[in-house]
Design brief:
This protein has eleven helices and six strands. With about 290 residues, the protein is an alpha/beta fold.
Length: about 290
């Protein structure tokens, strides 16, 4: 049986037995496996740095990756990592105690980026950009120190959609979080195995498993952020038309450059030359046909 303690990773011990939870868990495993395969995330023998914040998404990511590895479906070495950024009141013992109890190899790193963010960003402004840059720089450093080829982040489908609309509404570009990319230095990959997973499923899964979720007081303390406004908009669309989020995500995988307006992606100017070439070819064919007659 799937949930016998001798046939499952400790991260799944005590999983709810209900049919709904089991179906959701199976869906999560399938979606993560599909994302890994679709975007070529895993190479045999790779070492992954799995980044944990202590939120619902990162717990879900950790558990599903370990289930895939436990089942022999993910041929990589996994190292969990939490970057303690020095936020006041952060429960620093929660994650190391949990990871030790679960038998998960891990590294806990302390870097006080919180003080830097609070010093550099005026009150009332968004912390996220600077905070994420500082965090990313430290994670890349840790990955290199640990011999990891890939930094694994817990962004899910809804994060990707929200970023797309943030760029659309406020950045004037069509862009989002790619499921996989190469860093600017060209020595590390960054991957998001939860790319096909809905945020609601992460919430239900992590709560159902009773994982010790740690809220992000730094980001969560800022009301009215543009991302929260986009999230609210998507929630309203989803409420009116269930399944809308999934349809929009499929659109990100089904791009038609010739039906947009970026001359860097499609040679619109070359259409005239192609038309002239085709017209000349048609003329040649006509002459050849008349010669035959």
């Amino acid at each position: 049986m799937l949930d016998e303690t001798d046939d499952i990773h400790p991260l799944f011990h005590g999983a709810p037995k209900g049919l709904e939870f089991r179906k959701m868990r199976k869906r999560l495993v399938q979606q993560v496996r599909e994302a890994v395969e679709t975007y070529g995330m895993a190479r045999e023998g790779d070492r992954w740095l799995v980044c944990l914040s202590g939120g619902k998404d990162s717990y879900t990511l950790l558990a599903i990756l370990h289930e895939l590895k436990w089942r022999g479906l993910l041929p990589v070495d996994l190292l969990a990592c939490n970057l303690d950024q020095g936020q006041p009141g952060f429960p620093a013992t929660v994650l190391p105690d949990f990871l030790t109890r679960m038998g998960v190899p891990h590294r806990i790193e302390y870097q006080d980026t919180y003080s830097i963010v609070m010093d550099k960003i005026p009150q009332g402004k968004t912390y996220c950009s600077l905070c994420s840059r500082l965090r990313r720089g430290n994670l890349y450093r840790i990955a290199r120190e640990e011999g990891c080829s890939t930094v694994i982040l817990g962004h899910h489908r809804d994060d990707i959609l929200e970023t797309f609309f943030m760029n659309l509404f406020h950045g004037g570009r069509l862009a989002s979080m790619p499921p996989r990319l190469l860093n600017e230095e060209g020595d590390l990959y960054l991957a998001r195995p939860l790319a096909f997973v809905a945020e609601a499923d992460c919430e239900k899964f992590a709560r159902g498993m009773g994982y010790p979720i740690i809220p992000c007081d730094l980001c969560g303390s800022q009301e009215g952020l543009q991302r929260m406004q986009v999230k609210k908009l998507l929630d309203e669309w989803e409420a009116r038309t269930p399944g809308r989020r999934q349809i929009m995500f499929r659109a990100l995988m089904n791009v038609r450059p010739s039906h947009l307006a970026d001359p860097g992606l499609f040679d619109f100017a070359g259409l005239a030359a192609a038309l002239g070439t085709n017209a000349l070819a048609d003329s040649d064919n006509s002459l050849q046909l008349s010669d035959v007659r």
